[in-house]
C-alpha cells in the first residue's frame, strides 16, 4: 500500500463519513489520520472511529509533524484534485519527502465510488423518491402565464421543506429557451404551444438524484409530438442494451444511432448520461468515448435529447442501477407525453 494524502472533501466523506469543506486524510501503511479544524472536530471524533482525528489550526504543520513522526519518505497525492500551485506549495513544506502527484490515486477513488453499496443505492433511491414527489407537487403550477423561475422556485422549496437540497441548479426552460440543454430559468411566461423542460434533482443525506421530464402546454404541433416520441424511443433503445459487460460508449451509441437515422440527425450533441452518487455528475459516463465496462452496482442517468435551435428542445432522463442480470430503472414518473 502506498502512503497517500487525500484532500478532496467528497472522497474524505466517502472514506470516513465526515462531511466537511476542508480537511486532510493521511492514509499510511500502519495508521490513518483525519486532520480537521475546530468546526468539524467533534463530528469527526464521533463518526470517524477508524481514524485518529486531529484538530489543527495549521494543516501543513500538523501533517508534517505526523509524517516526521511516522518516518514517511514518500507520499502520493491525488493528481485529480491537487493542482500545480498547490503541489509546489506542499513541496515547500516537505522538501525531504519524495512527492508523487499523479492521477492514479484519484482514479482509484473514482473506481471505488463507481460501484455503489446497497446502503448507497438505498440513499440514492430515497433522493429519487423525493425528486418525484417534488415533480408531482409542482405539476399544478405548470400552466400558461406562470414564469419559468417561479416553477423552479416551487420545486426547490418543496425539496428543502422535505429535508433535502437541490442537487444542482434546477432547470425550467420553455418555448425557444428549451433548445438550450443547460438553460437557466428566466421570467419568461409559459405560453400555449410551449414545451417545458424540467431538469432537477435532490440531494438527501449526501446522495443525489437526477431526472428530466418535458411537458407540453396547451396545443402541440405534430412536429413537436414527433420529436418527443423520437427522444422517448431513443431512450428505450439505450435502456434495452444496459446490462453487465456492455461498454458505456455502446449504450450511448444505441440512442445516438437511432436519432441520427431520423430527420433530426446531429441534434443530440451531449452525452447520453453520467454516473450519480455523492455528486450529481461522476464516473462512469454514457458518451461516445467512455470505454468503462458496466458492472452491477453502477448508477447512471439515461437522458437523450433533441434540440432544435430557435424552436424547442426535448429531453427525457431516468436513473438506472446496473444489476446482475440487466438493470433497474428507479425513475417511476410516467414518460408518456403530458400536455397540461
Description:
The chain is α+β, with helices and mostly antiparallel strands. The protein has two domains: 110 residues, Creatinase/prolidase N-terminal domain (Creatine Amidinohydrolase, Chain A, domain 1); 225 residues, Creatinase/methionine aminopeptidase superfamily (Creatine Amidinohydrolase, Alpha-Beta Complex), CATH 3.90.230.10. It contains nine helices and 20 strands. The strands form six sheets. A six-stranded mixed sheet has the order 4-3-2-1-5-6, sandwiched between helices. Helix 6 packs across helix 7 and helix 8 packs antiparallel against helix 9. The radius of gyration is 23 Å and the shape is elongated. It starts with a strand and ends with a strand.
The name of the CATH superfamily of the largest domain reads: Creatinase/methionine aminopeptidase superfamily
**Contiguous helical run count:** 9
CATH class of the largest domain: Alpha Beta
Strand fraction:
15-25%
Largest sheet: 6 strands, mixed
Kindly, what is the distance between the CA atoms of the first and last residues, rounded to a whole number of angstroms? 58 Å
The appropriate CATH architecture of the largest domain is: Alpha-Beta Complex
Q: Low-confidence parts lasting 5 or more residues at pLDDT below 50? A: none
Helix content: 25-40%
Cα radius of gyration in angstroms: 23 Å
How confident overall, as mean pLDDT? 94
Q: Looking at CATH, which topology of the largest domain would you report?
A: Creatine Amidinohydrolase
In total, how many domains does the architecture comprise? 2
Shape: elongated
Q: What is the count of β-strands?
A: 20
Name the structural class.
alpha+beta
Amino acid at each position: 500500500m502506498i502512503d497517500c494524502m487525500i484532500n478532496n472533501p467528497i472522497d474524505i466523506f466517502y472514506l470516513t463519513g465526515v462531511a466537511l469543506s476542508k480537511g486532510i486524510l493521511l492514509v499510511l501503511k500502519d495508521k490513518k489520520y483525519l486532520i480537521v479544524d475546530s468546526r468539524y472536530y467533534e463530528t469527526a471524533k464521533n463518526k470517524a472511529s477508524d481514524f485518529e482525528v486531529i484538530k489543527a489550526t495549521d494543516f501543513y504543520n500538523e501533517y508534517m509533524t505526523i509524517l516526521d513522526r511516522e518516518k514517511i519518505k514518500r507520499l502520493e497525492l491525488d493528481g485529480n484534485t491537487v493542482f500545480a500551485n498547490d503541489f509546489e506549495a506542499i513541496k515547500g513544506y516537505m522538501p525531504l519527502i519524495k512527492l508523487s502527484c499523479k492521477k492514479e490515486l484519484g482514479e482509484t477513488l473514482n473506481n471505488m465510488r463507481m460501484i455503489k453499496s446497497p446502503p448507497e443505492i438505498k440513499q440514492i433511491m430515497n433522493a429519487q423518491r423525493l425528486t418525484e414527489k417534488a415533480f408531482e407537487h409542482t405539476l399544478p403550477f405548470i400552466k400558461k402565464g406562470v414564469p419559468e423561475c417561479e416553477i423552479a422556485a416551487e420545486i426547490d422549496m418543496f425539496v428543502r421543506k422535505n429535508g433535502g437540497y437541490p442537487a444542482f441548479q434546477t432547470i425550467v426552460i420553455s418555448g425557444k429557451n428549451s433548445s438550450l440543454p443547460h438553460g437557466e430559468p428566466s421570467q419568461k411566461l409559459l405560453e400555449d404551444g410551449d414545451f417545458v423542460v424540467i431538469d432537477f434533482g435532490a440531494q438527501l443525506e449526501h446522495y443525489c438524484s437526477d431526472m428530466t421530464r418535458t411537458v407540453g402546454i396547451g396545443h402541440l404541433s405534430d412536429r413537436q409530438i414527433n420529436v418527443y416520441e423520437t427522444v422517448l424511443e431513443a431512450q428505450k433503445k439505450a435502456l434495452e442494451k444496459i446490462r453487465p459487460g456492455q461498454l458505456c460508449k455502446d449504450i450511448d451509441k444505441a440512442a445516438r444511432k437511432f436519432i441520427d437515422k431520423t430527420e433530426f440527425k446531429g441534434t443530440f450533441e451531449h452525452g447520453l448520461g453520467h454516473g450519480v452518487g455523492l455528486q450529481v455528475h461522476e464516473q462512469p459516463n454514457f458518451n461516445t468515448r467512455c470505454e468503462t465496462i458496466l458492472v452491477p452496482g453502477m448508477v447512471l442517468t439515461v437522458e437523450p435529447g433533441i434540440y432544435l435551435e430557435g424552436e424547442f428542445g426535448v429531453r427525457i432522463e431516468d436513473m438506472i442501477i446496473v444489476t446482475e442480470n440487466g438493470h433497474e430503472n428507479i425513475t417511476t414518473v410516467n414518460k408518456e407525453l403530458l400536455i397540461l
